[in-house]
Design brief:
With 226 residues, the chain is mainly α. It has helices spanning 22-47, 54-61, 65-71, 75-94, 101-114, 116-128, 133-154, 156-160, 162-186, 192-210.
């Protein structure tokens, strides 16, 4: 499960002077680049991708614009790097063996909370931006595909009717993305168990109606890798 991290901030530090060894310099540059991306994500999510110029971004970060250009060629590169990083983490999570709905929900919430600004940029901002839409579509399709495979494995009737199975998968995906987004922004972390309980009950109710021929259980821990 992804571990939670402290609340994200737009504050960044400054590089130490001197000439470190090559390997150390590469590692330090990567660390600095990661720090800039995380801080930039906070600003971009708060101010809006299209409403934040490179000058405004540097000003919000409290650094000269030249520092940003030292690591990134443009604001577009920064935005795409942020989205690709969180999408890679999401993809890695979704390719893990299926260990039950509860386990999956815990990991999703942990990832979203640890990278809140990045997740909001991916799941909300990129959904409405034509240029960034492919990032959201990758997120969306990964959930649809996994849900589709789970439904196919869980129910003979679902396995036999691809159209209805896809309809169900699309419905579940839209429902859960909206639910997770709302909870990350409005739900108290201390009440995450309430969210998990609500999500399990909601999906269980849907699946019972959609798959009366299934023995599916929301907490089933079969090692399925759809």
């Amino acid at each position: 499960m992804t571990k939670s991290t402290p609340r994200q901030t737009a504050k960044v530090t400054h590089l130490k002077k001197g000439r470190p060894p090559r390997d150390e310099a590469i590692a330090r540059r990567q660390e600095r680049s990661d720090e800039l991306l995380r801080a930039s994500a906070v600003v971009l999510e708060r101010c809006g991708v299209r409403h934040t110029s490179m000058d405004a971004l540097a000003d919000q970060l409290g650094i000269p614009k030249t520092v940003l250009y030292r690591y990134f060629g443009s604001k577009d590169e920064i935005v795409r790097s942020i989205l690709q990083r969180i999408l890679n983490q999401w993809t890695e999570l979704q390719t893990q063996p299926w260990r039950g709905l509860s386990h999956n929900l815990h990991e999703v919430i942990a990832l979203a909370r640890a990278n809140q600004s990045e997740f909001l940029l991916l799941a909300r901002h990129s959904a409405t931006d034509p240029d960034l839409r492919p990032f959201f579509e990758s997120l969306h399709s990964s959930i649809v595909d996994r849900t589709d495979r789970l439904l196919e494995l869980s129910s003979p009737s679902m396995a036999a009717d691809r159209v209805i199975r896809q309809l169900c998968s699309q419905a579940v995906t839209g429902f859960m993305i909206d639910a997770v987004l709302w909870w990350i922004e409005n739900g108290d972390k201390k009440r995450d168990d309430d969210f998990f309980r609500w999500a399990r009950q909601s999906l269980n109710t849907l699946y019972r109606q959609w798959m009366p021929d299934s023995d599916w259980r929301p907490n089933l821990s079969k090692d399925k890798t759809p």
